[in-house]
Design goal:
68% of the residues lie in helices and 2% in strands. It has 434 residues and is mostly helical. The chain has two domains: 256 residues, no CATH class; 69 residues, no CATH class. The radius of gyration is 21 Å and the shape is globular.
């Protein structure tokens, strides 16, 4: 049944590889179980209810992606989008209930765009060099996330190797360095499940050394969803004023759309999932799972659900089908009842895995024709602007705009598809009016 549903042999994988990939992806993104309630709690939401909503929405969306699209991509409430949610509540005079209504509308818009194949057209219209650059850009982006989680980079400033190794007042940084050595050694030795083993070994070292606290318990009772379930306030949203309404909906929609597209393209490119035309098969199904996850997440009581770049950790371990996502989804549900164990995994243990995944994601850069500057410059801007702006979406914006402008300036306007022209116009409008 598993073979028939997920086509493991056809995708060059097996049950063991998919399970290890699922565990690896979950370990690298489990931080959202803690972080999302903290961020949305700052907007006045019940933290316990948000934690439950975070877990259930992640499990639902990831399972839908796994079964409907058969891709190893995991989903959960997105970082950045949850921060924007809190900012909307704090600065625009909206209640969190009204902000949830905006997230729900965002999800419905995406469902409509997906059913009309508009999002699928955008995914497939992005030129091959930008697709390759997106993978590399995500690699740098996810590596920087790892460096920040491990304390090697603080407030954007790198500590430097000598400072890092000599900083005995910050044992967490030393644990990250130890984890990086361990995980790198396992990867170099081509040990199966090296990233997952690295996370577990680093966690164990941290607990034995007293750097990390062991689990406070084993089993926990899930907090009630009641404080946030179906609490959407459409009246409060539409009473905020036309300009405020447009700004909020457009920002949620824009960032989520291009973050998702960028993640799908980047991870799929690294996993060699694109077809001979450079298009992503079953893109509509994948995008529908993302859209449905956002709508359901809003009903449960959390911010926008999106595809996670940490999915690349599972892909790096060999995950190629939806079975990886099934494992991630089940682990999220298990976390409802065993959250003390899940939350005991320290950031310093997952940081080395993310840094090394960043290395893996750089490989598609070799497919870029650097002798053609109308392709090399947009690719370069896509790569560097993702980590510099801390946004996958912004990296795509810079890449697409520069691609269109350069092709026109050198007399190669025919190379630009209609979809790319439309995107370029929309991006320019966004810069000037939003």
């Amino acid at each position: 049944m598993i073979e028939r549903l997920f086509k493991l042999k056809e995708n060059g994988t097996n049950l063991r590889t998919e399970v290890v990939a699922g565990f690896t992806t979950f370990m690298t993104m489990a931080y959202i179980i803690i972080v999302n309630p903290i961020i949305l709690g700052g907007a006045g939401m019940d933290k316990g209810a948000v934690m439950t909503a975070t877990i259930i929405s992640a499990a639902f969306a990831t399972l839908l992606m796994a079964v409907y699209a058969n891709y190893p991509f995991a989903l959960a409430p997105g970082m950045g989008l949850n921060a924007f949610f809190a900012v909307v509540v704090a600065t625009m005079g909206l209640s969190w209930q009204a902000a949830l209504a905006a997230v729900f509308i965002n999800g419905i818009i995406f469902i409509v765009l997906t059913l009309t194949r508009a999002r699928e057209v955008v995914v497939n219209a992005i030129p091959t060099p930008i697709k390759a650059a997106t993978s590399a850009g995500i690699g740098l982006f996810i590596a920087i996330i790892g460096f920040n989680l491990g304390g090697i980079v603080v407030d954007g400033e790198p500590k430097g190797l000598l400072v890092m190794l000599g900083d005995f007042t910050n044992p967490g940084v030393l644990l990250t360095a130890a984890g990086l050595v361990i995980t790198g050694w396992l990867v170099a030795k081509r040990v199966r499940g090296s990233l997952l083993l690295g996370i577990l070994l680093t966690s164990a070292i941290g607990m034995v050394a007293g750097i990390v606290n062991p689990p406070a318990g084993i089993v926990s009772t899930p907090p009630s969803l009641a404080p946030t379930l179906f609490q959407l306030d459409f009246g409060g949203l539409f009473s905020a004023g036309t300009l405020t309404l447009i700004t909020i909906i457009f920002t949620f929609t824009f960032v989520d759309m291009f973050d998702t597209i960028g993640t799908l393209i980047g991870v799929a490119t690294k996993a060699d999932m694109l077809d001979q035309r450079g298009e992503l098969p079953r893109a509509r199904q994948a995008l529908f799972a993302d859209a449905a996850g956002t709508a359901v997440g809003a009903l449960l009581g959390t911010s926008t659900v999106t595809t996670y770049v940490e999915s690349s950790a599972g892909v790096a371990e060999g995950g190629r089908t939806g079975l990886t996502g099934v494992v991630v989804s089940l682990l999220f549900l298990v976390a409802l009842f065993f959250s003390p164990i899940v939350t005991a995994i320290p950031a310093q243990a997952t940081a080395p895995a993310l840094i090394i995944v960043g290395l893996f994601m750089m490989e598609p850069v070799t497919k870029i024709n650097f002798s053609d500057f109308t392709e090399a410059i947009p690719a370069f801007l896509t790569i560097v602007m993702m980590p510099f702006t801390w946004s996958i979406a912004e990296g795509l914006v810079f890449g697409i705009l520069s691609y269109v402008f350069l092709k026109v300036l050198v007399g190669k306007a025919r190379d630009v598809s209609l979809t790319m022209w439309v995107l370029a116009v929309l991006f320019v409008v966004r810069f000037f009016f939003i």
